[in-house]
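WARN  no MSA supplied for this record, continuing single-sequence
INFO  ligand: zinc ion
INFO  echoing inputs
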Amino acid sequence: MEVTPLSPDVVQGSVETFRTLLRFNTVNPPGNERPLIDWVADQLTAAGIESTILESAPGRANLVARLKGGSEPAIVLTGHVDVVAVEPEHWSVDPFAAEEKDGWIYGRGAVDMKHHVAMCITVFLELARRRNALNRDVILLLVADEEAGSRYGMRWMVENHADLFEAGYGLNEFGGFNIPLPGNRRAWLVQTAERGFCWFRLRAHGQPGHGSLPPADSAVEKLTAAIQRLCHADLPYHLTPAAQAYLDGLARAMGPLGFVPKLLKNRWTEGFALRLFPDPEQANAVRASLHNTAVPTVIRSGEKTNVVPGTAEVEIDGRYLPGFTEEQFLDEVRQVVGDGFDIDVIESGPPAETTLHTPLLDQIHEVMNERTGGEPVVPWMLIGFSDTKWLQTVGIQTYGFSPIRFPDDTRFTRLPHGHDERAPRDGYEWGVETLWQTVARFCTR
Ligand SMILES: [Zn+2]
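INFO  complex generated
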């Protein structure tokens, strides 16, 4: 059932909210989310809505507000308000001025993810203003620190204040946008799964000694050989239910070229199918949804040129698929690197998988069908990290759905964390109405 669209004034107000959020410098570290959160709290207060601000550390603010409704399971509208650092010399505009040119609004956080935060604020305030009878509570949950692992944000909120946002459903980032497909086709992604992460140290031991005497047993040599093996051998292929849903969706969306995703569903034809992708970046991303991955990033060994070190270590960014445990993932790594290494986990977080059968996902499909003229909506797996993983640990079925429409020649993967991060104004306006229809229908039917 359609609800009355947002008025043009509300949509313009939402764009201004978005631009205001972009002007707060919330680069993490240090984050310093408090001034932005205070500003949001003021907007809510002006609308007669109470909110609670919770600081996990000085300046690291999180906000919860609630609209009361009926007894259906509550929905959380959520987003992180911190952003990653900028290298201003590579930007064509001031990254914190929210400048608009050629139909694009520029700013760090424009698509990761102040656009969604602004849209959530608009939808929340509009639900309150219209005083529609809600069938469920609607919770606004804005958090700090996602870009540095959520210790001061969602993870902390889930571990310490989950009682403030008990809910059945959530909407968070990474979905609701369009990707171009070969043959002039287009698909819209909704995040239904994400990989876990396991950052660890791999350490080799050897005989220390003098650099003038080649060692029989060298820690550096053992470690570099292990790194070579990790870089050249893929960890095993796994077709998880989430990846299967993604590939089936892509196959439907790609029409006559749908055989390519179908070939990806078989370990023996995976490599061949990946070479058919026109864009190697896209192929790499698809590949990462079919394998656990372990990428060496930081190498340490030795202090002096003429001293053979007794140990050598590498930090590895490990990511593993839904359905796997950290131990199973590390076993795969051990299989590749061999025996004789210490493995110490530095930090880790679980994978997440949201069920594909909920009234909320049905609602998303209904609205997207209308808003895109029937274009395909594909469930997909985020290969990186979002706060959804923490929400899932307290049973909140969360989808990545932060709707925004890009021109077809946009390379979305370059925008988040990239130079000149930006969002199209008309795509934003389309997105806020799409989010409004989704949430308002879900909460008033
Ligand atoms: Zn983000």
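The domain at 196-349 is CATH 3.30.70.360 (Alpha-Beta Plaits).
INFO  checksum written, moving to next record
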